Amino acid sequence: MNQADKELVKALHRGDRYACNDLVERYSGRIYNVALKLTGHPVEAEEVLQETFINACRGAGDFEGRSSLGTWLYRIATNNGLMRLRRREAPTVPLDTPPNAELAPEFWPKQLHDWHWEPEAVALTDELRRAMEEAVETLPDALRAAFVLRDLEGLSTKEAAEVLDISPSNLKVRLHRARLMLREQLATYFDEQPNGGGKGQ
Amino acid sequence: MSGHPHGQSEHTPECRALLAQLGDYIDGELKQTLCAEIEQHLAHCDDCRVLVDTTRKTVLLYRQHGQQSRVELPAEITSRLWRRLDKEGCVNSSDE
User: Which of A44, A86, A178, B73 is the most buried (most CB within 10 A)?
Assistant: First the structure.
């Protein structure tokens, strides 16, 4: 934890209300972004944002400093976001099989056609972005959270595992399954494009 | 895995091993010896080569998307956040 965060934690522990102001100013942008990616909906993201800082400011005394402030806030935001996702219809896909277990058949790749382009050469058009976001929204909640934290927010495996309170091995399993499901959906999308998705080449 | 489309029930042990290690391989977290084994397999298994390539591209596309889709917190959302936190007694409103 950096020195500024250490000072902020001390102030939060003292119950200093100005400390919550600092916390909000420093982290609200990041928390809103992760909430938006997790819920896929601006109104829900705003609600997650508000609930996260209410929970954080009220529960700051319980923060033990074993993780960074950012990781702690991500955890509160992710839990709030996941609670909202669980109120929606949940897909039924087995999630927490042991890391070394054989991959369930539904995750086995089916579409195996070459994509004849490099990601750097592909224009992220509005249509492609929409298709990518819709694909993320179809992921089971636990896989979605792992994917959003690791691949969209750029957290390390260790940080994302801490946020979700799971082992790094389990994080990798969830991430792997999420990526396979997304790959399958993108393969369908690109197959349906006139030039196989080679836009921008 | 020549001759066995991945969507079907037959997979060689090498294909299964690759699928299990695909995440670590793509993230560059696999030991060098295991990477060499995978690359040896990829040299003669078209399906696995396509799987590795398209999964890698999927991850790269989403990482690009993640970076480019970052938004500034809209001013009206910031205002509502401060109002709510003030109402809940969480912040000192004189500091807004």
Answer: A178
